[in-house]
Amino acid sequence: MPSYTAISALALEIFSTRSARRKTEPDLVMDDPEKVAAFTRAGRVDGVMAPMYLFHCAQISEVIRSGDTVLDLGCGPATQLGLVASINPECNFIGVDLSAEMLAKATGYVEEQKIGNVEFRQENITRLSSFPDQSVDAVMSTVVLHHLPDVDALQNVFAEVARVLKPGGGIYIVDFGHLKSERSIQKFAYQYAHRQPELFTLDYLYSLQAAFWLEDFKNAHEHHLKAHSSIYSTFIAPFLIAIKSPSRHPQDLELANRIKELKKALPSHHKTDIEDLKTFFSLGKLKSPYL
């Protein structure tokens, strides 16, 4: 059963008319040390983003295989990347990001966690100039695309994914979707304000305001990634939108147990959050045997 907070936020969206406009984020590249620190804290083991990262980790783990080279677009401080890499040690991961500050945090984090199957590159995800055609086995990206300045940049990213991906490769790309009204956006942004630094609440607000509309994702997917994947959104309101290829291996029981133990270790309110994600995405037909 979804939480009261999730239900009330969705109810507001259902009865809203489409009036909100997309606002690009104040900082398209997150290099401010204080903002980087707040964003990093929110994603660590006890941070507000932890259940979302575990949910996406399960989805990503379905579309990568042993021996794969996996590209993470906009890796940030590598919380998501580090989690996926740590439970898929037989894969090699390349994280790219435009922010030097983020990459410094990412490098320090994987070294601290002793994760040895990750490398980093400073690069623009709309022009993956260091990656030849068909050079990676899978592409992942989590809540990054709203940083892009416009729809043309979104199209460019999807085109680059199609270019660098090997035939039969895996894809898992997820980001916020734009909500219909500013009231809905405010409700979603502040629902976790009591659990996190104000700076992160504001960053979440700016991210939701900067999110692309579902039709923007559908158009880019249709032009570039339809042959490789399907597009999904959360039920009722597309507050999250995902693009995912079919599973590329049979269910791995050892991997399932790793994810189960990570889920078991979450605090109770985070277990509620991950169940909410499962519910709203499964009603939108996105599921994972690892959850």
> What is the 3D form?
globular
Can you tell me the residue ranges where pLDDT is under 50 for at least 5 consecutive residues? none
The CATH architecture? 3-Layer(aba) Sandwich
Overall mean pLDDT: 89
Count all strands and give the number.
7
Describe this structure in words.
This protein has one domain: Vaccinia Virus protein VP39 (Rossmann fold, 3-Layer(aba) Sandwich). Helix 1 (4-14) packs antiparallel against helix 7 (182-190), helix 3 crosses helix 4 (79-87) and helix 7 runs antiparallel to helix 8 (198-210). The protein starts with a helix and ends in a 9-residue tail after the last helix. Helix content is 45%, strand content 15%. The protein is an alpha/beta fold and 291 residues long. It has helices at residues 4-14, 33-43, 50-63, 79-87, 100-112, 151-164, 182-190, 198-210, 214-224, 253-264, 268-282; strands at residues 69-73, 92-97, 118-122, 136-142, 165-176, 230-233, 240-244. Strands 3-2-1-4-5-7-6 form a seven-stranded mixed sheet, sandwiched between helices. The protein contains eleven helices and seven strands. Strand 6 and strand 7 form a beta hairpin. The longest helix has 15 residues, at 268-282.
